[in-house]
Automatic annotation (TrEMBL):
Protein name: ANK_REP_REGION domain-containing protein
Pfam families linked: Ank_2, PT
Keyword Signal attributed: yes
Native organism: Macrostomum lignano
PANTHER family named in the record: NO MECHANORECEPTOR POTENTIAL C, ISOFORM D-RELATED, NO MECHANORECEPTOR POTENTIAL C, ISOFORM H
Gene3D superfamilies xrefs: Ankyrin repeat-containing domain
Organism lineage: Eukaryota, Metazoa, Spiralia, Lophotrochozoa, Platyhelminthes
InterPro entries according to UniProt: Ankyrin_rpt, Ankyrin_rpt-contain_sf, PT
Keywords: Repeat, Signal
Disordered: region residues: 506-542
Highest taxon, organism lineage: Eukaryota
Amino acid sequence: DPATGRTVAHCAAASGDPRTLRAVLAFDQDYAMSKSTDSAGQSLLHSAVETEAAAVSPSAQRHLVVRRLLRLDGKAGQPLMQDADGRTPVDLAVLSGAGPALAVLLGALVTEGKSSEVLSEVRDLEGRGLLHSACLTGRADTVLQLVAMGLSPWQPDAHGLPAVCYAAAAKSPDALHALLNAGTVGGLGLLAARVAEDGATLAHLAAHANRPAALRLLAAAGLPVLTAVDFDGWSPLQLAIAAGAWDAAEALVDEAASQVEAAIAAEADPTVECPAAARLPDMRTPDGRSLLHLAVTAGNCGLVIGILSIARLLSPPASGQSSPPLHPTHVPDPLGWTPLHVTLFAGRANLARLLLDISPVTALSVSRTADGLTCLHLAVSGCCLGHGSVDAIQLCQEFWPWQAVTTDNEGAMPIHLASACGCEAAVSALLSTCGVFQSLHLTAQGDSPLHLAGSETVARLLSSRMLMKDRIQRNLAGRTPSEEARARGRSEALVELLRELELEALVDADGKQPANQPTNQPANQPANQPANQPTNQPTNQP
């Protein structure tokens, strides 16, 4: 084939049929040998064991084709010859899962006196060895074949990762299961060791790759899958939640729950029998966030319920109480944010209602952040930033209506935040409760919500709830709303609108036209008479 350089002999080898190959070689073996590599550098032996050929033409006699090619001279029958991508026929046999064909290739290497040291040095262009590739495919029979040849599961690749790491992160847990059962990976101390440059263990790799079956195998082998931490202080469960590996995270939570339940069923103290599982609700990331913080940030209701269930098992409510004394929902991070705060800021009203149903409203549930922000402040901020929702605002108003008139450390109510962002939906929701009082309240800088208005729609909404005299109120800097808007760099259209509202307020306050208009014009002057035209009527005439 001029395009690929493949000959009929390559196609015969890929077919997996020894009779076809025998017929082609019998016709002109010398020509076939002279063209034994194609444009990709693959020999006839490569073609016989490549992944696509094994999938398209499954053959129980492919190993006979391999045995026939190994008897050829030259490049056609070399098991360790590399193609243009650095792959040998042995590599391709490992990746394709051609067990009998791989056995023939390995047997040929043994016959040639190739030791396990030589095989362990075989690398593809990505730096992976034969056992690394076998573990990556998850084929237990291939893994055991290579281990029987003397290859070590702890032999590192070009990046320092041993083959057992590939088995832990593989889609199929069969390779890891085979290594654990064969006893070739050493004791528990070796299994629990850090295997990556960042200090990750096998459990970290399985969790990050979202491999729940591998995590269960490691836990059954005695590996501390719940408490192992890398150099950054992250556990496998924290890493799984942060990476969005939900199956792995749920498997770890289920493992912790089963340990706690087993200890309680045996009438034992869970903190003594399974201290790792008992510490799970209180586990913190290096930045001080709990597992519940991570779960609500991700918005995974299943994980939230699982973590809270473990907390309830460990700290059952006292008599007459419906929740534990200190519920994980109310535990703050270093910035004072509780999981409930995070949920409302993200606008997840349904998840917030779930938290409130599991943990009834207490004094702790209305705690503030370090900046003095209430739940309603955070729900409004999230809505203004675009990732929140009006539903979260309405939920806060349902549970804590007084937070609508509560100020933060800067003296700002939630409506000040919504007004400054120009969020019409948030302002409308807030004005539905205590609208007049909110629209008149001043911040520590003396700004009313109208001073902070970020859009024309918000300015109209606020002005409709304000007295005329309050439209022209000045802040501590001595500026009216229109002057403050200009100072803040708002749009010219907003500045003009606020100026019009102020002029309306001036007319209403004086009962006449503004001071820069003449005042001696009689009320019954014809409409077509210019305003500045003199009249002969006395100025004191009623």
